[in-house]
Amino acid sequence: MSNFPPCPQCQSEFTYADGALMVCPECGHEWSDAAPNDETSSPVKRDANGNELHDGDTVTVIKDLKVKGSSLVVKVGTKVKNIRLVDGDHDIDCKIDGIGPMKLKTEFVKKA
């Protein structure tokens, strides 16, 4: 049969998904079938090698990165201590010695 859960109201096995909701065609009941930790937990952030990153980790830059709006460059091998993971187009907030506050992408760092 289907992989959908039975209706919580009438226990019908003929439920189906309609967008973000589950629907029972027999009693008309609609409910959200999101698991509690599917939507509430943020996705795991991984470095260029696939290692899981956490707040407070130390990472190493694996590619020369130009600093936008400046002539500065973050060189390969630069260690960045005490990172903070954030959501958005850049995954890491950090402070680099000699440059200042930066936002980095996880694809350009590896866990130290």
TrEMBL record:
Positions with biased composition (Basic and acidic residues): 44-53
Segments forming domain Protein YjdM N-terminal: 4-32
Domain of life of the organism encoding this protein: Bacteria
Domain Protein YjdM C-terminal: 46-112
Chain spans, region Disordered: 32-53
SUPFAM superfamilies the record matches: Prokaryotic SH3-related domain (SSF82057), Zinc beta-ribbon (SSF57783)
Pfam families to which the protein is assigned, alphabetical: YjdM, Zn_Ribbon_YjdM
Family, similarity comment: Belongs to the YjdM family.
Protein's name according to its UniProt entry: Alkylphosphonate utilization protein
